[in-house]
Design brief:
It is a single chain. By secondary structure, this protein is mainly alpha-helical. It is about 70% helix and about 0% strand. It contains seven helices and no strands. It has helices at about 10-20, 25-35, 40-55, 65-80, 85-95, 105-115, 120-130. Helix 1 runs antiparallel to helix 2 (about 25-35), helix 3 runs antiparallel to helix 4 (about 65-80) and helix 4 (about 65-80) packs across helix 6 (about 105-115). The longest helix is centred in the middle third of the chain and has 19 residues, at about 65-80. It is globular and about 40 Å long. The termini are far apart.
Amino acid sequence: MAFGLSGDCEYYGKLCTASGGSDEYACNTQKCCEDFGNSLITMCIRQCLIIDDVLINLFPNLTYDEINALRYWAHYHCYGLDCSGGRYLGLYVKIFGAPDSCNKSMEIVEDAVDKDLSSFSSAMRKLDKLFK
């Protein structure tokens, strides 16, 4: 995966295929990723989100909801902390909305977090045990 290549978005399609279609987030995210274009900010955010996703998927004991809750928080990490200008793009998306192709992906991760943060809390407890 090389920084800034539009093919980075293919990661999600490959992840979808590898999951046999069971990773609904991955199966709905490639087009969303592509529709954000290739500005320096979007390329940085894209790279960050994919790296976070790869790391999240390294932990075999996480449930699907826990993975998606962590994916939700990865967006805050990448938009807010890791990429210069990401906060402005995030604000733009909050005000004007993301591309329509992102609706299902956003719904999936928001649903995971809406479960009283239990999925996120559970994932963090499992990760905490691994690093102790």
